[in-house]
From TrEMBL:
Transmembrane segments: none
The organism's place on the tree of life at top rank: Eukaryota
Keyword Oxidoreductase: yes
GO cellular component annotations of the record: cytoplasm
Gene3D superfamilies attached to this UniProt entry: 3.50.50.100
One term of GO molecular function: flavin adenine dinucleotide binding
SUPFAM superfamilies per record: FAD/NAD(P)-binding domain (SSF51905)
Domain FAD/NAD(P)-binding: residue ranges: 7-314
InterPro entries: FAD/NAD-bd_sf (IPR036188), FAD/NAD-binding_dom (IPR023753)
Protein's UniProt name: FAD/NAD(P)-binding domain-containing protein
């Protein structure tokens, strides 16, 4: 690295992308020797500089006033000004508003399409961290290749449909389906809500006793119709006998006469990895990484290509996974950025010899929080059950919106 700028490029303005940006500028680069600090340039590429606090995205569908508030969407760029140093051009975060369309490991370049102009440009990198996240079947709930204004408009439109519908069908009974259905019933008690739970049933990834409790509370406390054993195969617009707009659902058991005013898919995610070489991905399209968060199947063992967050196959898609991953990647980068050249074999331990490895977490086995309306829920932390009222106090009452600024500001950086 001697005398030459080392370009670290972060792809994605997700929780993970913003977080590792703060980690680099706050906790990694300042710990290097002074002459190295000035040679490192950190660039983040994302379609928008606004971050959507997805934990509360569902709640905003029944409380749309949150969409125009100052807690659900945050412009993260001003929070990186704290790292800018006068007369040091590489300091701070360099932001490119666009999205990467391809990565060439041989030339160490990225093809980038700029959001505002649509023009294509090419950027060099020395290290690249892929943190593009995953998108849901309901695009209104995650920013993807769109401005915050576009996302807010779509968010409001879906909230208006929720308010207008008399019968809402929800596809999926995992955490998203459970939280969305109970929020709707709490705010709109006269609406009919049907949840299609699929063959695995309600909350299938938690311990059976909690799954059973969740299903019973949906049925008995919130009066939600839970249909187990089938899932929604397709949803097509139609009209009823009175000529009113409806949605015709085709179920996996062959049923085609199920109807609703509105259908919201609430299961499954698709990783944002279309721009990456197929050799980097597993069979489901997720980024295949080593326990040290290096991407597998690169052309060299020290390609300096890393993955972070729920774009990786090893992540359980929940927030706390990022923190475990980020701690490992921080230690790896601290050592690598201190060297002029990387060793022949990848760094896998701390300087004292302690192994550096992210161990995939079972996301819902010992640590999970599922809200049931705004007053309670079901949760475990480190294997301990939390009472429903405490879940209500800690999370359900405001979906942690009061803490959302901590992500954008870097207070939660590893």
């Amino acid at each position: 690295m001697t005398g030459k700028t080392h370009n670290i490029v972060i792809i994605g303005g997700s929780f993970a992308g913003i977080g590792i940006g703060h980690s680099l500028l706050k906790n990694i680069i300042p710990r290097l020797q002074a002459d190295r600090q000035s040679l490192i340039k950190v660039t983040l590429i994302a379609p928008s500089s606004e971050y959507l606090f997805t934990l509360a995205g569902l709640r905003a569908l029944v409380e749309p006033e949150l969409i125009d508030g100052n807690q659900l969407y945050h412009d993260f760029l001003p929070h990186f000004d704290q790292y800018r140093v006068k007369d040091k051009p590489n300091s701070g975060l360099h932001f490119v508003r666009g999205y990467v369309t391809s990565l060439d490991e041989v030339t160490k370049t990225l093809a980038v399409r700029l959001t505002d102009s649509g023009e294509e440009t090419v950027m060099d990198y020395d290290s690249v961290i892929i943190a593009t996240g995953a998108r849901t079947a309901t695009p209104e709930l995650k920013l993807k290749d769109q401005s915050a204004d576009q996302a807010k408009k779509a968010h409001k439109a879906l909230a208006a449909k929720v308010a207008a519908a008399n019968h809402i069908a929800i596809g999926g009974a995992g955490p998203v389906g459970v939280e969305l259905s109970t929020d709707i019933r709490e705010i709109f008690p006269d609406k009919k809500v049907t949840v299609y739970a699929g063959s695995r049933g309600v909350m299938s990834k938690v311990q059976p006793r909690f799954a059973k409790e969740a299903e019973e509370r949906l049925k008995n406390e919130f009066k939600i119709d839970v249909v187990s054993g089938v899932r929604v195969k397709s949803a097509e617009p139609t009209k009823n006998a009175a000529g009113e707009d409806r949605v015709l659902l085709t179920l996996t058991d062959g049923t085609t006469n199920a109807e609703a005013d509105l259908y919201i898919p609430a299961s499954g995610e698709t990783p944002n990895t279309e721009f990456l070489p197929s050799t980097y991905l597993d069979s489901s399209g997720y980024l295949d990484t080593t326990p040290q968060l290096r991407v597998r199947n690169t052309k060299s063992t020290n390609a300096r290509v890393y993955g972070l967050g729920d774009v990786t196959a090893s992540s359980g898609g929940v927030v706390h996974d990022y923190f475990f991953q980020a701690q490992v990647l921080k230690e790896i980068l601290l050592q690598e950025l201190a060297l002029d050249e990387l060793p022949a074999e990848p760094i896998m331990t701390t300087p004292s010899g302690k192994p550096l490895a992210y161990e995939p977490q079972d996301p819902l086995a010992k640590n999970f929080v599922v809200t049931l309306g705004s007053r309670g829920g079901i949760a475990m932390t480190k294997g301990w059950r939390l009472p429903s009222w405490l879940v209500g106090w800690l999370r359900a009452r405001d979906m942690s919106l009061s803490k959302s600024i901590m992500i954008a500001s870097g207070k939660m950086a590893a």
